[in-house]
Design brief:
The structure is a homodimer of 222-residue chains.
Chain A lengths: L5 H16 L6 H8 L3 H13 L3 E4 L2 E5 L1 H24 L7 H8 L5 H10 L25 E2 L8 E7 L4 H10 L6 E8 L4 E6 L4 E4 L1 H4 L2 E5 L2
Antiparallel strand pairs in A: 1-2, 3-8, 4-5, 4-8, 5-6, 6-7
Helix pairs in contact in A: 1-2, 1-4, 2-3, 4-5
Chain A binds a DNA duplex (30 and 30 nucleotides) through helix 3.
DNA sequence: TAAGTTTTTTAGATTAGCTTAAAAATGTTT
DNA sequence: AAACATTTTTAAGCTAATCTAAAAAACTTA
């Protein structure tokens, strides 16, 4: 019944995020890069997390979360994203400002608080970046989505999320007028540099680099 | 420009609270009691806080806060009380539940966040216990208030705060129907045990022990 | 003021989380 | 398979915050 520290929580979340992408478990390298810490510190922490049975750890091979470890990680993600909705919807922060504050708020410990916050916000299913919010049991609403770059000529879609979360990218999208729920239609595809021309909300035409179109998730209309 | 830890913040707040009451600075004993830690730990921390010039410290005498130390403490109080208003007004927690959550939330670091929260809450001047909320510069709205036990016969007042903040006391007040803004009139005083009979909101008569009447602040009507 | 009690400080140790440097294991090339 | 490169682990040590036990200072009271 030993309690879990903020640092341990952050390691679990890092492992969770890495395992979402990579199939083979999280490597020491990947974790130390993400946590901006030394490989030795990671090994140290992995041993502690293994002793608490929060991860499956064997020397010299990638780690994965146990059922309990994953429950903690998804709960953190749930809290993070609900706080992001609060910051954006209630306190009017923009989507490029909310992450660092939510990073602190996610460690506040109270089931009751987070459940009441969820109710207060109207049981949102997605955060301001379009990422799904896990429910109390860690289940997430999955959505039919694809990259904007994969649109066919003339096809219409709605922006539902972003892959890249950096403040600079999000600010750039704001500058372009690209927000969640924007309607986009593919007008032209330039093979030369993989850039695309889109019609935004049935109004102006916009030219997007491959880097931009490969970091925006859309849902095909209908 | 070294940053300040959550633990250091808690010590500063403890010293601030003690100095509010005692005139002569906070003793090691008073701090260790309030922080529920050993006297040795306190001495240790006092040296560190002194080195950071957050307190005035001399061996074997009570400590006081420097201007900077006091600024940090009042800012913590400001954050604590604003979060308490949020928890009570927006998430519908009762006044006996909010303190432990606010104790965590007060350590979230963002000026912008707390200022927007203040705006969102409508710039409240008092928290759900009737305690004043410091503004950005640490100034508090003082209020003409006195203990319910000091009412004269027939005199009318409004409940504006409590001195004791324990959950059991607050729950007891709820049971009695005594909430902030209740109207009370002194009906009778019993010298024998210092208990008082009051009329609540012009309706029912209520008998209060000295312990209760000495922990409720009222404002004389008019 | 001398004796006794309480408070405060010092000394020495512990734990979590981190570091660097070196050793060991694993992966990659030729 | 041998040589090199990379990754992971071990070893030793640091800091913040804590502890207990003992020493020192301050107060209380006969």
């Amino acid at each position: 019944m030993d309690s879990i520290s903020v640092t341990e929580e952050n390691y679990l979340k890092a492992i969770y995020k890495i395992c979402e992408k990579e199939e083979k478990g999280a490597s020491n390298k990947a974790i130390s890069t993400r946590m901006d810490t030394s490989a030795a510190s990671v090994t140290d922490m992995l041993k502690r997390l293994a002793k608490k049975e929060l991860i499956h750890y064997e020397k010299h091979s990638g780690v994965t979360l146990t059922r309990e470890g994953r429950a903690i990680a998804t709960h953190l993600v749930r809290k993070h994203r609900l706080w992001e909705v609060f910051l954006a919807d209630k306190l009017n922060f923009s989507w490029d400002e909310i992450h660092p504050m939510a990073e602190e708020l996610e460690h506040i410990n109270s089931e009751e608080l987070i459940n009441r916050l969820e109710k207060f916000l109207g049981y949102p299913k997605f955060d301001p970046h379009g990422d799904p919010i896990p429910d109390e049991e860690g289940r997430i609403t999955t959505r039919q989505q694809m990259l904007l770059s994969k649109l066919e000529m003339g096809e219409k879609g709605t922006i539902v999320g972003v892959q890249e979360h950096s403040a600079t990218f999000l600010q750039y999208l704001d500058r372009l007028g690209l927000t969640l729920d924007s309607q986009v239609t593919l007008v032209e595809k330039f093979e030369y540099d993989q850039s695309v021309k889109i019609k935004l909300n049935g109004m102006l035409d916009l030219l997007l680099s491959d880097k931009v179109s490969n970091n925006i998730f859309i849902k095909i209309n209908g």
